[in-house]
Amino acid sequence: MQKVKIEPFKLIGIAIRTTNEGQKADREIAGLWQRFMGEGILEKIPNKVDYTIYSLYTDYEGDHTKPYTAMLGCKVGSLDEIPEGMVGKSFDGGTYIKTSAKGDLMKGLIVTHWTKIWEMDLSRLYTADFEAYGEKAQDPSDAEVDFFVAVEE
């Protein structure tokens, strides 16, 4: 676990409103991933700065037990061109705690790691938290994913 500074960034992708209550988010975010991959969203995002996929959590109504927006997308240089059916978001960046998880994405790696994060004693801001799926996450059965949680400085 390390504290890092994240520069402001912009994302374009697809999003849903969900909640962690009753494992609703587990099912709905899995569906969002299926749509992202099945509809070739990655290729349709304009002005990408790279091919890292971000799974972003924002617009929290409270802490992690309350509704929030989940978004899958890529960092972009501009929000000038947002394709129909997609959303664009701009973030201020800030101080984040970075952790990583390694293992099989199909065997609950992400949900298990978030459960650990929820149990950590962190001064969370609940502004925007995210996972980054870069080159080390290409093999779903042996992926390494970085998690970033917004915290007070």
Could you characterize what this model shows?
The protein is of the alpha+beta class and 153 residues long. The chain is built from three helices and eight strands. The chain has an eight-stranded antiparallel beta sheet. It is globular, with a radius of gyration of 15 Å. The mean pLDDT is 94.
Key structural traits:
single chain; about 150 residues; alpha+beta; 8-stranded antiparallel sheet; 8 strands; about 20% helix
What is the structure about, briefly put?
20% of the residues lie in helices and 39% in strands. By secondary structure, the protein is an alpha+beta fold. It is globular and about 40 Å long.
**Number of helical regions:** 3
Strand order of the largest sheet: 1-6-8-7-3-4-2-5
User: Uncertain spans, ≥5 residues at pLDDT below 50?
Assistant: none
- Largest sheet properties: 8 strands, antiparallel
Shape: globular
Separation, N- and C-terminal Cα atoms? 15 Å
Mean pLDDT across all amino acids: 94
Q: Would you count the extended β strands for me?
A: 8
Order of helices and strands: EEHHEEEEHEE
Chain oligomer state: single chain
What's the alpha carbon Rg, rounded to whole Å? 15 Å
Percent in strands:
35-45%
Q: Give the class from helix and strand content and strand pairing.
A: alpha+beta
Kindly state the percentage of residues in helix. Answer: 10-25%
